[in-house]
């Protein structure tokens, strides 16, 4: 691997993913806009790396409060990052205190209320990578619960250090907005702080990241008024109707990947750092040596430097709104159906007005839109992004933190209230939503063509993967099968006696080395030839609703074949819905809602947020929140009937889908 590859590995190992200058400028501008002080302004970055955020806040404050002394304090574990920060500071005549120390260990020694602002892009390292003991210690020290990542203790430490009215500018993974594990962070941001601005930067790729970024601005103490909430996601005009576009799935964020869950492995290197900067550092900015540490000569760095020069924040921290380009309108807004269809066919990628030019311009327009008060459409590297402006919808009481955050918008909220009023139950109320099997040795267990074990076909089961799923039906043309060495009559995993299957035993024996490398399995007292997660063997034969974990659109289908479901999909067994004819009706109702336009709109408003390129995750915690109408109503009965027809058709057409959409709308209409 080239220099870049090695650099990326190093960054990942040590969590050294720095914020690009433009994003640092935006974050700093938003923080500075809320600081009013005549005396010295003290600013802390608890994990400062090469100091990008501190340099940015200094610039922003110099613009907003000229002549006001600014005292910068940066902590970091990494001497190389700090050395770079020092050199940059010396070169540009910036005074700052750089402390090489473990902030989490040493923060208790800092006096309370000693900072007017904190600006941070803390390391994002998940519990699994932290290791159980370290995570437990951090939970105890910072009063956290459940699954944590390193962002949580960093944020937990901050309110005490902030003066009343002090401002926090936080850049972190946007997952906390919607995931169960994010409840810690949501609670922290609501306890002693008040969030005042939230930017879900979605799939803008403002910098390269394993996860998508969000910016939160919060103030210490109570603040009147709503929290502004802006999100940016690629417009969906280009969504391909091809289910293959769902790409390779990743593990459920709520699922501990077994390789990582194994404590002996978990103690190892830090393998996942979410907020990854790297590209677009600003070698042109005063004192910047970004190229040393990051992507030397990275494309676009110069352009981004130019943006910074063109676009200083105003005194109030906002940016000048970019000129409006006579570009395409927001999908659906004033466009004819024919135009929308053409749009969808052409996709957004190919038609960006400036798709090859003007990255600096694009960034300027993006940041201007983020600062704007109305929805906007911006272009970025040939892709079209919808900037949506609303407010943070606050649930009352404890639910404010326990329930994922969503955007509230005029008009939209009335619709949501109407659906909620007519909701009978949620999916989660009715049955378990399970992830599929995880073998952790797919090369051994999963194949379309089998040798020896094919002679003992009772252990080979059809396997449904995300490739096979369409809305309503399952395309089994791939014929993928899984070697499933379990007794199918047992409710819990009971591995078969391999002596009864000599050809399969010989096959597995040939792969013993690979299988026993999963030491966590045998370490847990299990057989070396087992799957890591085989799920419930006796349930496969019962019909089930199956859907892929990652997909741009819902693809819920009914399986009656007895196939096993792979770990890139989720499933709901009809046994959990009662197992009788009523269960199939209920399954049809669920599929009807899930695969409808209303279901998708509800998902976007309430359940989850999107990944790159419009992909969505359809995991338990999101799907369980989807609504169901009362199954006894005529509208619900009509949905069930229509879904039965759709399931029976080999390739349901658009007309059937449109009719279903209408029925679902009717079921939730007043
Ligand atoms: C995501 S980087 C952000 C750096 C910088 N603030 C920026 O935005 O460019 C996180 C930084 O946290 C540092 N770090 C990790 N654990 C730390 C700890 N316990 N105390 C202080 N710094 C830490 C890493 O060395 C890394 O430089």
From TrEMBL:
Assigned keywords, A-Z: Methyltransferase, S-adenosyl-L-methionine, Transferase
Residue span, Type II methyltransferase M.TaqI-like domain: 111-207
GO biological process: methylation
The protein's Enzyme Commission number: 2.1.1.72
InterPro entries from the UniProt entry: DNA_methylase_N6_adenine_CS, MethylTrfase_TaqI-like_dom, N4_N6_ade-DNA_methylase, SAM-dependent_MTases_sf
Organism domain of life: Bacteria
Coiled-coil annotated residue ranges, if any: none
Gene Ontology MF: a single term: methyltransferase activity
Catalytic activity: a 2'-deoxyadenosine in DNA + S-adenosyl-L-methionine = an N(6)-methyl-2'-deoxyadenosine in DNA + S-adenosyl-L-homocysteine + H(+)
Keyword Iron belongs to the record: no
Biased composition (Low complexity): 327-347
Gene3D superfamilies: Vaccinia Virus protein VP39
Keyword flag Transferase: yes
Protein's name according to its UniProt entry: site-specific DNA-methyltransferase (adenine-specific)
Species of the source: Nocardia fusca
